[in-house]
């Protein structure tokens, strides 16, 4: 952007030099015209017409230069407005990037927290799995004990029935 402005400034300086040269030339032309005017005083009418014509051309050229300067000024205003628009857009983009960076930072922190939570959950899961395996072993042992106790109870029940029947037989025999 600065390079373009420097380029434009350089062009303006060249134009100023050209205008200065033109003005100097104009001064030279004026002085030559004055000398001729004095020399040709006798031919005053024709000289006046020539001078008027030259002045009109000069005025036209000045008008053209003024128009060109106005156009340059207009272009500078357009360029300046465009630069302002670009600056506004850059500011908006920067704001958006800052929001995105903030969100990404928050997401990164949340991912870190989630990773830690997952690790803790994995460790707890391993502990739970161990506890479940130990509980399964205990349940198997309890089932074996219960099965064993059930057989004993059945044996004792059968014996008790046998003894009752023997007692009844003995009571009957007596």
Summarize the structure in words.
This protein has 174 residues and is mainly alpha-helical. The protein has one domain. It is built from 2 helices and no strands. α1 packs antiparallel against α2.
Q: Total number of β-strand segments?
A: 0
Major beta-sheet overview? none
Q: Low-confidence parts, pLDDT < 50 over ≥5 residues?
A: none
- In whole angstroms, how far apart are the ends? 132 Å
* Structural class label: mainly alpha
* SSE pattern, N- to C-terminal: HH
Element layout with pairings:
Elements lengths: L1 H38 L4 H130 L1
Helix pairs in contact: 1-2
Condensed summary:
This protein is mainly α and 174 residues long.
Which key features would you list for this structure?
174 residues
């Amino acid at each position: 952007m600065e390079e373009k402005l420097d380029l434009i400034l350089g062009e303006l300086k060249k134009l100023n030099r050209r205008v200065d040269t033109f003005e100097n030339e104009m001064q030279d032309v004026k002085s030559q015209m004055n000398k001729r005017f004095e020399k040709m005083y006798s031919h005053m009418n024709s000289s006046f017409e020539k001078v008027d014509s030259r002045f009109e051309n000069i005025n036209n050229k000045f008008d053209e230069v003024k128009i060109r300067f106005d156009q340059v000024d207009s272009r500078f205003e357009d360029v300046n407005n465009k630069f302002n628009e670009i600056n506004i857009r850059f500011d908006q983009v920067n704001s958006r990037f800052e929001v995105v960076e903030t969100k990404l930072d928050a997401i990164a922190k949340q991912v870190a927290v989630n990773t830690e939570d997952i690790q803790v959950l994995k460790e707890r899961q391993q502990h739970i799995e161990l506890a479940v395996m130990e509980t399964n072993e205990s349940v198997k042992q309890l089932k074996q004990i219960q099965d064993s106790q059930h057989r004993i109870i059945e044996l004792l029940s059968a014996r008790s029935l046998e003894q009752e029947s023997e007692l009844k037989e003995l009571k009957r025999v007596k």
